[in-house]
Description:
Elements: E1 2-10, E2 13-15, E3 19-20, E4 24-29, H1 35-49, H2 74-77, E5 88-98, E6 101-114, E7 120-128, E8 133-138, E9 144-148, E10 156-158, H3 171-176, H4 180-196, E11 198-201, E12 212-213, H5 229-238, H6 242-257, E13 263-268, E14 274-281, E15 284-287, H7 293-307, E16 313-317, H8 325-342, E17 345-349, H9 353-364, E18 373-381, E19 384-389, H10 409-435
Parallel strand pairs: 4-17, 4-18, 11-16, 16-17
Antiparallel strand pairs: 1-2, 1-3, 1-5, 5-6, 6-7, 7-8, 8-9, 9-10, 12-14, 13-14, 14-15, 18-19
Helix pairs in contact: 5-6, 5-7, 6-7, 8-9
Amino acid sequence: MLSLLRLKNFKIWRDTSEIPMTPVTILLGTNSSGKSSLIQSLLLLKQTIQSPDRTIHLNLGGDEVSDLFTFGDFHNIYRSGTKGKRAFELAFQFERQNMGERVSQGGFRCIYGTDSRGAIVIRELILSSAEHHFRVKRSQRDAYALYVDDETQTRGKGRGFAPERSIAFSSEAIRHLGQDGELVEDISLAIRRELEGIVYLGPLRRKPERDYVWNKSKPGEIGSDGHKAIDVLLSSALIRGEEHRQVIDGVSEWLRRMDVAEKLEVRQLGGSNRYEVVVHRDGVVANLRDVGIGVSQVLPVLAVAYFAQRGSTIILEEPEIHLHPLAQSLLAEMFFYVSREREIQFLVETHSEHLFRRMQTLIAQDETDTNTCSMFFVERDKSDAVLRPLDVDEFGAVRNWPPNFFGDSVGEARARALARAKALARGQRLKEIAHD
C-alpha cells in the first residue's frame, strides 16, 4: 500500500508536500485544479516499469495498446516558470502488509531532467528501506556516482551505473555494492510489485454490447476504460470454484444495495461461444444493453474492486458517473468495506457530494476514521495547485471546508423561503385589493 506521495514541479504542482495515503484516499476539488496530475504521476511510473526497454528512464507513452497515458515531452510535464535547475521530482513511500500487519516498507525518490539532446534522464535516484538508502547521481557526460546512506565518498562512478526503468540499479552498480546489492534488488522488486499492483479505471467507461464472445479464459486486467469488465464477470460466473464466484456475487450484492438491480446473470446463447449479461429487477429480466447507462458504468467499478489482487491500489476517476444519489453514497461504503475485507487501497477522484457525505457519516458512526479514510481538497491559487487536507472531527464534521464547493445549501434554502414569502405576501395583497 502506498503510504505517502510527493511531487515537485510536476505539471501544475510546485510542491505537493508529503501527502499521507490511507486505505481509502478521496480527492475532491474544482475542475482543472490538479487532481488528475496526482493520479498521472503514478500512471507514469507504472507504464515506465512495464516498458520492454530496460534502459528507459521514463516512458512518456504513445502506445495506445500498452500505455495508460500519453504525456508528450519534458515540457508537458515540467512546471514552467520554476526557478533553478529544470527538473521535476516524483517520490512515494510504501508498506507491504500481511493480514493487516506491516511486514516491510520502503521508499522511492527520483529527480528527472534533460540531457543535451532534450531527452528525459534521471538526475538522481534514491531507493530506501526502513534502515538504509542508496543513491545514484548523474554527473557530467552521462556518468553516475553511487552512494550509500550519508556517505560522501562514492562507491564507484561510470556510465554503467545508469538506473533502469526509474526503479532499479544496474547490474554493475549492484556488484559494486557487495552485500548491500541484494538489499537494493529487494527494494527494487518491492517497488516494482507496488507499481504493478496499481489498477486504473478512468472516468470514461465503454458502453455495453448486446452479447459477448468468451474464450473461456480469465482476463489479466480490466482495462482503463473497463472494456474487460464483462470478461471478468463471464469468467467469474462460468469458471467453477468459490474464488471465481466472488466477483459476480460481490457485484450483484452492491447493485442490489444501490437499488440498481437485484442481480446479474450470464446466459449462453444456444450452443455458441457467445453470452449475454442480463439484469434482474422487479421481476423483469433485461439485457444489459437495454437498462439504464448507470448500471453499465458502475459495473467496471464494482468488478475491479473484487477482481484486483489483494494488496493492490485501485485508482478511480469519477466512479459515480451516471449514478443516482443513493448509489453514489453507497460507493463510499463499498470502498470502506472492500478495502478492509480484501486489503485493497482505493485512490478516488470524485465530484460526488453524496459519496463525500456518506463518508462523513461512516466516520460519525465510528465505522471508520481518518487513519483509514483521508480526504483532500485540491484547488487553484493563481497558477499553483494547492492541496488542503480536510480536517474531519469524530462527528464527521469538516472544520476547514472550502466555502460553496458543493453550493450554498443554506443560502439556497434562504432564497427559496424568501421567494415563497414574497409570493404569499403578493397573494394576500391581491385578496385585499379584491375585497376592497
